[in-house]
Amino acid sequence: MDQSEKFPTPAQLAAPAALPAQEALGWITRLVAALELMPGVAVCSIDRAGVVRFCNQACARLCGVTPQQAVGRRLDELLSRGEREAEHAALLEAVWQTGRHGPAGDWIVRAADGREHWVCSTKLPIFQGELGQVFCMDVDITARKHAERTLTLAAQVFENSRDAILLTDSQRRIISVNRAYGGITGFDACEVLGRPLTVSRAGVEDETFLREVWNQIEVLDHWQGETCSRRRDGEVFPAWLSLTAIRDGQGQVSNYMAILSDITERKRSEEHTRHLAEHDFLTDLPNRVLLLDRLSLALSAARRKGSMLAILFLDLDRFKPVNDTLGHQVGDALLREVAARLLKCVRKVDTVSRQGGDEFVVILADIGGIDHAAHVAEAVRQAIGQPYRIGEHELHISASIGVSIFPSDGDDIDTLIQNADVAMYHAKEGGRDGFRFFSAAMNQRIVERATFENGLRRALDEQQFELVFEPELDVRSGVLVGAEALVRWRHPELGLLAPERFLDVAEEAGLMVPIGNWVMREACRHARAWHDEGHQVGVAVNLSPAQFQQRDLLEQVQAALDEAGLEARFLELELTEAILMQGGAGVADTLRGLRQLGVRLSLDDFGTGWSRLGQLKDYPIDKLKIAQAFLAGGFDPTVIRTIIAMARSMDMTVIAEGVETAEQLEFLRGQGCDQYQGYHAVAAARASGQASVLH
Ligand SMILES: Nc1nc2c(ncn2[C@@H]2O[C@H](COP(=O)(O)OP(=O)(O)OP(=O)(O)O)[C@@H](O)[C@H]2O)c(=O)[nH]1
After folding, report:
1. Among 358, 384, 398, 433, which residue has the most ligand 1 atoms within 8 Å of its CB, making it the best to mutate?
2. Cα 599 to Cα 469, 470, 538, 572, distances in angstroms
3. How far is the CA of 331 from the centre of ligand 1 (A)?
4. Is the pTM above the cut of 0.80?
5. Can you give the residue range of the structural domain that contains 567?
6. Which of 170, 216, 516, 613 has the fewest CB atoms within 10 Å, measured from its CB?
7. pLDDT tens digit string along 339-353?
8. Is the Cβ–Cβ distance between 664 and 657 less than 8 Å?
């Protein structure tokens, strides 16, 4: 390019001596023509009086007029600068005074039509020999200013947000966190920058959940939901997380933004509100709303499992007089104490609720049978019946309880509650302080059962139990070597009852231990009496699993021996396979303890259920009793032969139970069986006169 064609610098254009006037004018003309083409730059020139001499399209647009309308008017009329008008005038004056171009600066200008723009302005003095005009050049920077403002605002929002905000790169690595993040989690930014963004539920990362979250973000660019987050000190807190994918101009994810709100307080307050809505204010028990909800769940579960459930409808008896005589406050305290006692009578899976007033409803979920419901109803009745100390008052109150059973008394919530209510009224009519089942037949059974159980409880005190002794004879010599003690209950109305009639009830009523201990003491006493009469005969008693588990079993056995003055080797404890099958060190220790006392141990009913024969040798068992089923129940020579051989190999005594015939005895003798028991033994003992020993 020719040197003369080179565009002059602004300094050359502005300095009077730099270019001859004619040349300067030429360049200015070309410059103006060029500026006309630049839509973004508003250019006008003004003379010393501030009147516009030249105005390009962009400048006219900025002023809201046409170039023709602009020329001849004062610039400060066309574009006002508000409060900075004087500042602008001073700047312009300085240009005129010094002949130097003014500094670039940002201004807000308002056009005649009221529109406002941000402009970046410079002033260029133009010399045509002498200083003739000032070119004003304004670049519209409104959009940039807005962008800057938006950015500043965004940064302020980011920094001042009360929610934690995290930004990640496209690989989900954290690149920025705001101040609230530190406040909420306790982590410093430097501890998390560069780390991957994690999303977890219930404090643990769940792969399936994570996949679902990121899949949704991939499709919708957004996911939000409840999660759990962990603070620096390890505390897990509930959080609301909002995740957004940020895409670049090409539509590729460039960043992710996570907004994390700590919702601990909200949750707490929601929980509190829900608790208030679902609980009784006085007792804090579930109210009717929650009861119906729980009942509906319990019913669904019972239908699914085919199990039973019971509803106990309880109303206090003559509660009104408590209020009337001692005041509502005492009444309230009594209701609270009743609630506490009710809770103690049920399991965790059950629900105790207060319906209002002095009415309570209990759901017994998944009961094994109506006996269970009857037991709880009785336990509740007794618990409520205990005296209350409220302030200086000692109070007594009772309750009437109605029981309905799913499925027999109804298939839906309303029917079951209504029927329990009806049963409760029957209990009131029946004299209060009691419980009634809705169904008459059930009620009859329960009454009978309860009477039987109460009788059994009294039987011990009233000495209604008796022992009978079944002789154990030596197979070879026919000599009486021992006797098994068997318990009978002489029921005042039903006569002499065999154990099968009452042991199940005793077990449910928790009476096995006292009855078993009575049998042991009584058997020892009898054996001692035989010895005193010159008959060295041992006695065997059955040990129930409940007895075996009692903590002071060894003391009980020793006490029975001491009381009777019986040598330990004459007492034999018959264990069931069920006891040994509980296994574990506890069983072996107890057996060893018993052995150390000197008593003998036998395994009853052998051959019917032992599944771990191998373990038998680990236990100090002296004697195997071949189950009656293999003799009286259907003679099975193979099994008998095997058991005898096994007992021999383990150096144990073997006795056959239920021997009924001379042929069976002959067979046992042939197999080397040591002892026998059963009708045939009883007959032989009688015939030989030995039976009289066992009185
Ligand atoms: N203290 C107290 N009393 C209440 C509350 N809600 C209801 N009551 C009273 O509880 C009593 C309920 O009495 P009832 O069950 O109708 O009668 P009752 O005296 O218990 O007689 P029976 O049920 O027939 O044995 C009424 O006196 C009610 O005013 C409460 O929140 N606090």
Report:
1. 358
2. 19, 19, 10, 6
3. 9
4. no
5. 459-693
6. 613
7. 999 999 999 999 999
8. no
